[in-house]
Amino acid sequence: MIRVKVAGVNPFYFRAVSGGVDVKSLPHIPGAELSGVVERIGDHVTNIKECDRAIVYSRVFDGTWICV
Predict the structure, then answer these.
(1) For residue 21, how many other CB atoms are within 10 A of its CB?
(2) What number of CA atoms fall less than 13 Å from residue 15's CA on the CB side?
(3) Rg of the chain's alpha carbons, rounded to an integer?
(4) Is 48 helix (H, G, I), strand (E, B) or coil?
(5) Closest CA to 5 of 42, 31, 40
(6) d(Cα 4, Cα 38) in Å, to the nearest integer?
(7) What's the pTM?
């Protein structure tokens, strides 16, 4: 689990909520780029520890998640 400190909202989200882009799953919460601190990890996670800084980029509309 990551405690989010900063979330990015880019022009794509404006187009999505103003009807310029077809969003299939509304309501949609914008903010796919985020950074924060790892608060908890799963039992099988070995390469990340609590208090690590993290950045996440999620491509919300195709389900891809990247966490560094």
Answers:
(1) 12
(2) 6
(3) 14
(4) coil
(5) 31
(6) 9
(7) 0.61
Count the helices and strands in the chain (H runs, E runs). Answer: 1, 4
d(CA 16, CA 34): 18
Q: How far apart, in whole angstroms, are the C-alpha atoms of residue 10 and residue 43?
A: 34
Residue 12: count of CB within 10 angstroms of its CB: 14
Instruction: Report DSSP state, residue 16.
Output: H
Q: Coil, strand or helix: which one is 53?
A: strand
What is the rounded CA–CA span in Å between residue 45 and residue 43? Answer: 6
Query: With the C-alpha atoms ordered 32, 29, 62, 13, is the resulting torsion angle positive or negative?
Result: negative
Q: What is the mean pLDDT of residues 5-20?
A: 77
Instruction: Give the tens place of pLDDT for each residue, 29-58.
Output: 666 788 999 999 999 999 999 999 998 877
